[in-house]
Protein: Arsenate reductase
Amino acid sequence: MTDSQATWAPESCALPTAERPLREQEFAGLFRDELVSAALTAAGQADLLLNRGSRERAEELIARETHCCSFFGFTLTDEADALRVAIRVPEPYADVLAALVDGTEQAAGLRRS
Structure:
């Protein structure tokens, strides 16, 4: 992950600062391996589609993330051929979510840096 990508964790995150790049790398790995598409659907709302077989990996990472950044709301829904991850955040964190979505697309090679 480049320094420009490692910027979405907000200061309010309870994860120790030294561990944030590692968590962001874990998300980047999930997205690199499993992301099908990502889109901001509204301010503070995003939908990601992951490969269907990624549920266990996504659930484990999301559980750890919501422990340190409780403002994230995640909903996982199994679809016919994918796992939908709906992400919601309060308005003050909309820019954090936008940076996360941008980083997901970059990690998956869907957007150029």
About this structure: Helices lie at 20-34, 55-68, 94-107. The beta strands are 35-42, 45-51, 73-78, 82-88. The chain has a mean pLDDT of 84. The two ends are 11 Å apart (CA to CA).
